[in-house]
Amino acid sequence: MEGSVRVRFAPSPTGLLHIGGLRTALYNYLFAKGHEDGVFVLRIEDTDQTRYVEGAEEDIINSLVWTGMDFDEGPGKPGGVGPYRQSERKDIYEEYAEQLVEQGQAYYAFDTPEELNDMRERLKKSGNPSPKYDAITRMSMKNSLTLPQEEVDRMLKDGDDYVIRLKVPRRETIRFEDEIRGFVSFESKGLDDQVLLKSDGMPTYHLANVVDDHLMGITHVIRGEEWLSSAPKHILMYEYFNWEPPRMAHLPLIMSPSGGKLSKRKAESEGIPINTRDYIDQKFEPEALVNFLAYLGWSPGDDSEVHTMDELVDLFSLDRVSKGGAVFDYKKLIWYNEHYLRDKPAEKLWPRVREIAGEHGLEPDEEYMKQIIELMKDRVSKIEDFVTMGRFFFDDPEEYEEKAVKKWKDNSGELLQAYVDKIDELDEEDFEAKTLKNKIKEVIKAHDVGFGPLMMPLRVAVSGMGYGPDLTPTIELLGKETTIRRIHRAIEKLG
């Protein structure tokens, strides 16, 4: 394990994988794969059993696989430093918590929830707005620092409830170098005596995190900015255990377009899908999401915007990650999605489109559908659009889009009838886009109008919409009989 880069993505299975979590995973993955022999570890931090959600771990793994981030070690992929679920490592943490107690750097605390509450209320009344269990208050509480040793031994023997707390020094400056932010320093007087081992014998995030990162040989901890305030406690523990801490990098927050952190509530109000599962369900291109997330807080330092996962691996470095928050621009994500759809041949898109068509009760012919895909590629934002926006390739429009109908003028019916008369004379082999366009030119010349007065009603008549793929190739694909039938119907309905 010596010398090689080892990173970990360590989510809690407390719900579906958040888009911010996916970006953290991506930066870890890109960093690991950018180094020879780099290892990407997945660790499931499930020590908080009260918040455990059934199926969440599966969702995390599916999300990583869908985006092309296969982990090297993790649940189901042993690598010699497992198990990779913290709930299966419980005994390990107890041993290390006890070690800190023996060294005098942690202690047993027997306070009941009521006693903790009283302490907070008391301090609030005396003018302390954010009371905490720390170097000052610990001396008036019920713990192994204030109780006689024989009483502590008796309480432990009797099985009284206790937690183990970290003994944070009263006046110390804790400094470390962050790979993104440079040197960061914290005053220990601002920290509380963090609980390391809970009364149910489970570790808190802080203890489990430090112990696991050390035992799993993690060289770089790349995580969200929200963990920056916990870093000094972790640095203290590394010091107490006499271990070399990993390099740390705290990623910028993902911001909402309206300002502030992109919370679940804000995302919902702004129409931004918040969980990776939403992007899978909405059939986004995984490459688009990866490319977009990579640029959400990082850039390669030039104007390039489109890169495959392999290219991102080559380009990525922590020194190019920004310190400031990155705004989630949903329009940009759609732009990426459109790009990756256009980039894929109809051959590759066809199986997925066929499946979506099936969900909409259609059974398209393969050749016909591939022609539709080629025709619509420049117009779609998501793969479903081939079927939803392209529905008129299968069924005559039942109704006409309101906005488009407003452009239907008094002479629209007359112009369309003139066009029908022209194309009615064509044989099947002459019914092709180029000829169809020439016939449009003949009609507008004879009636002395521009393209608009004929093109718009024609589009509405054949598709029911005021937008869509190139018109004359569309008419060619629909065929003569269908086109004429639809025009007649529109004239009848719209006058």
From TrEMBL:
Span of the annotated motif 'KMSKS' region: 261-265
Record-linked InterPro entries: aa-tRNA-synth_I_cd-bd, aa-tRNA-synth_I_codon-bd_sub2, aa-tRNA-synth_I_CS, aa_tRNA-synth_I_cd-bd_sf, Glu-tRNA-ligase_bac/mito, Glu/Gln-tRNA-synth, Glu/Gln-tRNA-synth_Ib_cat-dom, GluQ/Sye
Domain Aminoacyl-tRNA synthetase class I anticodon-binding intervals: 357-491
Subcellular location field: Cytoplasm
Glutamyl/glutaminyl-tRNA synthetase class Ib catalytic domain boundaries: 5-335
Swiss-Prot/TrEMBL catalytic activity: tRNA(Glu) + L-glutamate + ATP = L-glutamyl-tRNA(Glu) + AMP + diphosphate
Highest taxon of source: Bacteria
GO molecular function, one term: glutamate-tRNA ligase activity
Family annotation (PROSITE patterns): AA_TRNA_LIGASE_I
GO biological process terms on file: glutamyl-tRNA aminoacylation
EC number assigned by the record: 6.1.1.17
Gene3D superfamilies in the cross-refs: 1.10.10.350, HUPs
Top-level class of the enzyme under EC nomenclature: ligase
Record's keyword terms, sorted: Aminoacyl-tRNA synthetase, ATP-binding, Cytoplasm, Ligase, Nucleotide-binding, Protein biosynthesis
Motif window: 'HIGH' region: 11-21
Binding site for ATP: K264
An example Gene Ontology CC term for this record: cytoplasm
Family recorded in the similarity comment: Belongs to the class-I aminoacyl-tRNA synthetase family. Glutamate--tRNA ligase type 1 subfamily.
Function: Catalyzes the attachment of glutamate to tRNA(Glu) in a two-step reaction: glutamate is first activated by ATP to form Glu-AMP and then transferred to the acceptor end of tRNA(Glu).
Assembly information from the UniProt record: Monomer.
NCBIfam families listed in its UniProt record: gltX_bact
Protein name as it appears in the record: Glutamate--tRNA ligase
Naturally occurring in which organism (per UniProt): Fodinibius sediminis
